[in-house]
């Protein structure tokens, strides 16, 4: 039948367009996330970037399919005559196509879900840090303050030893703030009256950013401070050199 | 309609729309509350020890006050729209870059307990100390604080600065001083110095809950521009 | 050539109406101002002026007075009132209310004719989009480089909050307001909506809410985003009370409209119009309306609890009083997520309708399309906590909500299947509405895929609260819904006015807007990926390039919207005449004359097939 040949011709051309877009998409997916995102300073952040790459690679062929068909329609099936175009073929449905579409999108979703759940389980462990340590984080309008339980040290910038598993107990004195260590991929809200917690293992020495991510009023944009990840020796030195403030 | 006519209409609509919006923007900018900047007073040069070495630096002084109401003059006749709100004397401070800034804050207001004893400590000043009515301290009693002066910026845009000095409660009950339209008691005088780095704009605010609302008293004066917060421009 | 706006002026010939003859928008405003002033004075005299909640209670009562006064002044409840006192409206009164022989005046009055309400909704949508757009320009201009420029952070925070809310309201009504009102009754073969007076009520209640919403900016604004999270919402000045009242008023408007739409479609279809022969736009309208009926009461409740906390000292949302902010967040997002599908579905329905007409092909897989939309609506009520992954509320529920959120991508994929299937081997007629359809396909894919990233908790831990989220939802709201709304306008403009929306100006507008959207929001994705949080009045230097580019893109979008406005004004007044069915469409609204007669049909049609019979002669020959 004429219709089957028309379908075949279209599918053939669309396949090539799809292939090109997919390849470009996959290449971008592999390279772009790490290039665009901040340096990774924890195993959690590595996992975040890896997940973004996987999701992008999975999304590339889907996006390519939609764009390829739309592009082909725009170029090949465009009516270039005058006035109202004649009717097209009465193609009301195609059960096979619909079934394949729904099944494959379900399978893709399930794959992404399994990946996501696995990554979540790893994240909640907080990394493979050695000596576990706790830091109390207090957010208030509009400054972060950090205290180290068991010591009298209090600071407005966070200092951490590298490769230790740090658990943050986060609370707020007034409204909800968002505690986010940008390069470590951890974020938890600071709520008044309750304490929430999140764990992470920093694995790279350096200075990183902490930013507030829940709008908290006038100086929300300035509720920004830094975190310094130091070697064990440097951290002990810092800790003992701090005056008693808490 | 011809293509030319369409282009002309498009251009005219974009330009006129742009002009209308620009006018709105300028109107908005000029209607916003502006306080005249307060420049630091030049005190000449001084020598400071930085990291073990002696460095010669510009020395400037800045004097501001914290008031229990808004009647002292800056907010306009009758105390402005919120005469009963606590207020700093100025919200717009300017200091030079790479200099030693000595700040004197006259604290006229009463106080109470801090909601976070963290801010009873002195941070970021030269020597880590502040002088309160002549006495040199590194922290004050967290249950008797009037306000704080807490200065910070966006670390990546400016030399990171975090200066926080608690301003103790003023217990005096008589009000012999007349400033503007208000009556105030003898102030608690707090002096401290810090060093500025490169150019930038910093924000400072009070971290003592002295505003309105049920939540941590950070509403009203604390959340409205021009009262308990301001900018420090390092030029 | 007469348009729907140029009825023969026989004003004197209108009979009936009673008191409604004297009531209109102006009397509504006067009534609103008077009763607001009355409530203000009473409240000020009777309330304890020294109490902390005085200003909030005063503001709330004044706002309530405005709404009641506006309703009274425009005659919203005259019909009910007259029935109550035994002098029920007669046929002449109802014809008067429907705008018979009133000429242009009927657009300024409490008119029940669904076509008039549709036109009024077009104007209201444009006003809302203009207000939100001006605020957006202010925001983007402020963010052009780091540091404060022409607004301080307090004003900036107020602007983002009101921009968000105004745009959300605008998009909720953008397609459903004008077109579910103007087109759906004709599409199902009815003479008007099921409840014509409620139809006018829903429009005028929306109009009453607008001054409350914009007024909140004038009395100190609010600093907590459109989400008005507790407890910071309790800290805000009186602007928050007006804002909450505006939402409550809006929820009333939208509930009334939703009930009306559903009842009309379920009970007033003409003979032969079975549910399987309904145009897809009708399905999308009732599914969206039903979802809205579920979701908006949550909005009303959360705002009411906010007001009660602020004015009477309860502690629903205050931890120190025994409440919790998490209650507010849950209630809000129970509304907030279904609401975005209430926004999306009518736009998708309109775009599908347009795609069939301009591909000259039946809708691909009609049942799957309807089922997909229903699944989308159904699943959307199960995903709300994906906005709350980092709140610490229920860490163990992270997995289940991740599951439901990822599942939503399946019905979303069905939307693409149906559009592409409809385009397949059609004769694509590239008139103005079709440009927006292709723009939608491009943008909605990006918006949808980035949503999938956010559904994954580890990625969301990084991206929540950053500009990545902002770019994601702007791709969906601006790139998809707004494109759908504009496509619907271009498509039904000839039916509404008898003229074409100018193709050349429309195409200029399309290209400016489309390019502007990509420039603004792709750059915004990069801002977010690099770590810029949202709702920031100022930002670190590393974000300056991407923000600069986003601001330039925003100006390009503004240019596109201005050209569209020029196109609408020019075409409405002197555009090319179109005739009753310029697109040779098969849905019922195109088979009635233009301007559409007051009661739509001389003789109610009998339906023998769905409106997608393109190409059937070819099959049968």
Description:
The complex is a heterotrimer of chains A (246), B (235) and C (621). Chain A has 246 residues and is of the alpha+beta class. Chain A has helices at 2-36, 43-76, 95-125, 232-241; strands at residues 133-140, 143-147, 154-155, 158-161, 166-172, 177-181, 186-190, 196-200, 206-212, 224-230. In chain A, the strands form two sheets. Chain A has a five-stranded mixed β-sheet. Chain A has a five-stranded mixed β-sheet with strand order 4-10-9-6-7. The radius of gyration of chain A is 26 Å and the shape is elongated. The mean pLDDT of chain A is 92. With 235 residues, chain B is mainly beta. Chain B has two domains: 1-32; 35-234, Immunoglobulin-like. In chain B, the strands form three sheets. In chain B, strands 2, 3, 4, 6, 7, 8 and 13 form a seven-stranded mixed β-sheet that branches. The longest helix of chain B is centred in the first third of the chain and has 29 residues, at 3-31. The model of chain B has no long low-confidence stretch (mean pLDDT 88). Chain C is mainly α. Chain C has helices spanning 25-46, 54-74, 78-84, 91-97, 114-142, 153-174, 176-182, 184-187, 196-218, 239-267, 280-312, 325-359, 366-380, 398-407, 409-423, 432-455, 457-463, 467-497, 503-530, 544-574, 616-620. Chain C is globular. The two termini of chain C are 39 Å apart. Chains A and C meet through helix 1, helix 2, helix 3, strand 7 and strand 9 of A and helix 6, helix 12, helix 13, helix 14 and helix 15 of C.
Concise synopsis of the structure shown:
Chain B is built from one helix and 15 strands. With 235 residues, chain B is mostly beta strands. The model of chain B has no long low-confidence stretch (mean pLDDT 88).
């Amino acid at each position: 039948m004429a219709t089957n040949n028309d379908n075949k011709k279209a599918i053939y051309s669309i396949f090539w367009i799809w292939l090109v877009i997919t390849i470009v998409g996959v290449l971008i997916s592999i390279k772009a996330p790490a290039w665009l995102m901040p340096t990774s300073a924890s195993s959690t952040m590595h996992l975040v970037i890896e997940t973004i790459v996987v999701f992008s690679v999975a999304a590339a062929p889907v996006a390519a399919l939609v764009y390829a068909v739309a592009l082909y329609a725009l170029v090949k099936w465009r009516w270039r005559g005058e006035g109202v175009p004649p009717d097209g073929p009465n193609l009301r449905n195609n059960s096979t196509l619909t079934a394949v579409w729904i099944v494959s999108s379900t399978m893709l979703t399930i794959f992404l879900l399994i990946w996501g759940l696995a990554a979540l389980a790893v994240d909640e462990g907080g990394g493979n840090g050695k000596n576990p340590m706790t830091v109390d984080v207090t957010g208030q309008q509009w400054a972060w303050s950090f205290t180290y339980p068991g010591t009298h040290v209090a600071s407005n910038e966070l200092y951490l030893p590298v490769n230790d598993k740090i658990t943050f107990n986060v609370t707020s004195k007034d409204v909800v703030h968002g505690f986010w260590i940008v390069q470590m991929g951890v974020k938890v809200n600071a709520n008044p009256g309750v304490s929430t917690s999140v764990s992470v293992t920093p694995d790279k020495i350096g200075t990183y950013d902490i930013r507030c991510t829940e709008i908290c009023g006038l100086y929300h944009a300035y509720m920004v401070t830094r975190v310094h990840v130091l070697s064990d020796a440097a951290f002990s030195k810092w800790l003992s050199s701090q005056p008693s403030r808490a | 309609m011809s293509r030319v006519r369409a282009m002309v209409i498009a251009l005219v609509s974009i330009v006129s729309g742009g002009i209308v919006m620009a006018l709105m923007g300028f109107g908005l900018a000029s209607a916003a509350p502006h306080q005249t900047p307060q420049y630091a007073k030049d005190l000449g040069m001084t020598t400071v020890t930085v990291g073990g070495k002696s460095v010669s630096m510009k020395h400037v002084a800045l004097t501001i006050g914290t008031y229990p109401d808004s009647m002292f003059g800056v907010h306009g006749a009758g105390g402005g729209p919120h005469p009963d709100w606590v207020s700093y004397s100025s919200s717009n401070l300017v200091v030079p870059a790479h200099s030693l800034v000595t700040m004197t804050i006259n604290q006229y207001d009463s106080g109470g307990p801090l909601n976070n004893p963290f801010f009873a400590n002195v941070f970021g000043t030269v020597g880590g100390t502040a002088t309160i009515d002549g006495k040199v301290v590194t922290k004050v009693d967290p249950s008797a604080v009037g306000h704080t002066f807490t200065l910070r910026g966006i670390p990546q845009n400016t030399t990171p600065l975090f200066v926080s000095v608690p301003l103790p409660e003023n217990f005096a009950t008589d009000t012999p001083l007349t400033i503007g339209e208000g009556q105030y008691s003898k102030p608690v005088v707090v002096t401290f110095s810090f060093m500025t780095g490169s150019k930038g704009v910093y924000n400072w605010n009070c971290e003592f809950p002295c505003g309105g609302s049920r939540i941590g008293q950070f509403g009203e004066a604390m959340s409205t521009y021009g009262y308990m917060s301001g900018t420090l421009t390092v030029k | 050539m007469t348009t729907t706006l140029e009825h023969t002026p026989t004003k004197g010939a209108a009979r009936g109406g009673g008191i409604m003859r004297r009531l209109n928008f102006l009397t509504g405003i006067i009534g609103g101002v008077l009763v607001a002033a009355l409530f203000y004075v009473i409240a000020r005299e009777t309330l304890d002026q020294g109490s902390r909640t005085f200003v909030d209670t005063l503001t709330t009562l004044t706002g309530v007075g405005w709404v009641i006064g506006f309703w009274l002044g425009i005659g919203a409840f005259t019909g009910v009132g007259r029935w109550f006192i035994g002098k029920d409206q007669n046929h002449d009164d109802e014809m008067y209310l429907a705008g018979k022989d009133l000429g242009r005046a009927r657009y300024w009055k409490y008119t029940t004719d669904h076509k008039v309400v549709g036109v009024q909704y077009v104007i209201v949508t444009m006003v809302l989009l203009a207000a939100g757009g001006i605020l957006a320009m202010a925001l983007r201009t402020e963010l052009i480089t780091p540091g404060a420029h022409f607004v301080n952070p307090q004003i900036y925070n107020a602007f983002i909050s009101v921009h968000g809310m105004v745009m959300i309201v605008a998009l909720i009504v953008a397609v459903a307001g004008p077109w579910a009102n103007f087109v759906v009754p004709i599409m199902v073969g009815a003479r008007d909506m099921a409840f014509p007076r409620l139809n006018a009520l829903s429009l005028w209640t929306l109009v009453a809410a607008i001054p409350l919403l914009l007024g909140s900016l004038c009395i100190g604004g609010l600093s907590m985003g459109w989400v008005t999270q507790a407890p910071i919402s309790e800290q805000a000045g009186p602007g928050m009370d007006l804002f909450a009242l505006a939402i409550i008023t809006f929820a009333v408007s939208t509930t009334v409209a939703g009930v009306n739409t559903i009842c009309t479609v379920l009970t007033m279809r003409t003979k032969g119009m079975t549910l399987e022969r309904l145009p897809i736009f009708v399905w999308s309208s009732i599914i969206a309306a039903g979802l809205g009926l579920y979701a908006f009461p949550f909005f009303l409740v959360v705002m009411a609890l906010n007001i009660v906390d602020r004015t009477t000292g309860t502690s629903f949302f205050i931890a120190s009083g025994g409440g919790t902010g998490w209650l507010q967040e849950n209630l809000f997002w129970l509304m907030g997520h279904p609401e975005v599908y209430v926004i999306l579905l009518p736009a998708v329905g309109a775009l599908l309708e347009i795609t069939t007409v301009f591909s000259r092909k039946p809708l691909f897989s009609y049942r799957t399309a309807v089922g997909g939309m229903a699944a989308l609506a159904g699943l959307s009520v199960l995903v709300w906590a994906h906005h709350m992954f980092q709140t610490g509320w229920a860490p163990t529920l992270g997995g289940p909500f991740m599951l439901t959120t990822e599942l939503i991508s399946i019905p979303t994929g069905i939307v693409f299947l149906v559009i592409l299937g409809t385009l397949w081997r059609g004769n694509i007629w590239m008139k103005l509405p079709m440009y927006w359809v292709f723009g939608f396909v491009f943008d909605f894919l990006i918006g949808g895929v980035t949503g999938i990233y956010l559904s994954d908790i580890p990625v969301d831990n990084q991206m929540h609260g950053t500009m990545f989220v902002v770019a994601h939802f702007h791709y969906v709201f601006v790139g998809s819904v707004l494109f759908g709304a504009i496509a619907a306008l271009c498509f039904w403009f000839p039916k509404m006015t008898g003229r074409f929306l100018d193709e050349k100006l429309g195409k200029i507008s399309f290209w400016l807007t489309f390019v502007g959207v990509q420039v603004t929001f792709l750059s915004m994705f990069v801002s977010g990926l690099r770590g810029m949080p949202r709702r920031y009045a100022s930002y670190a230097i590393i974000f300056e390039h991407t923000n600069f580019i986003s601001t330039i893109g925003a100006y390009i979008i503004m240019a596109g919207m201005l050209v569209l406005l020029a196109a609408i004004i020019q075409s409405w007044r002197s555009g090319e005449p179109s005739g009753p069915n310029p697109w040779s469409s098969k849905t019922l609204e195109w088979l009635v004359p233009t301007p559409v007669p007051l009661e739509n049909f001389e003789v109610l049609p009998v339906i023998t097939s769905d409106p997608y019979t393109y190409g059937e002669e070819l099959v049968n020959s």
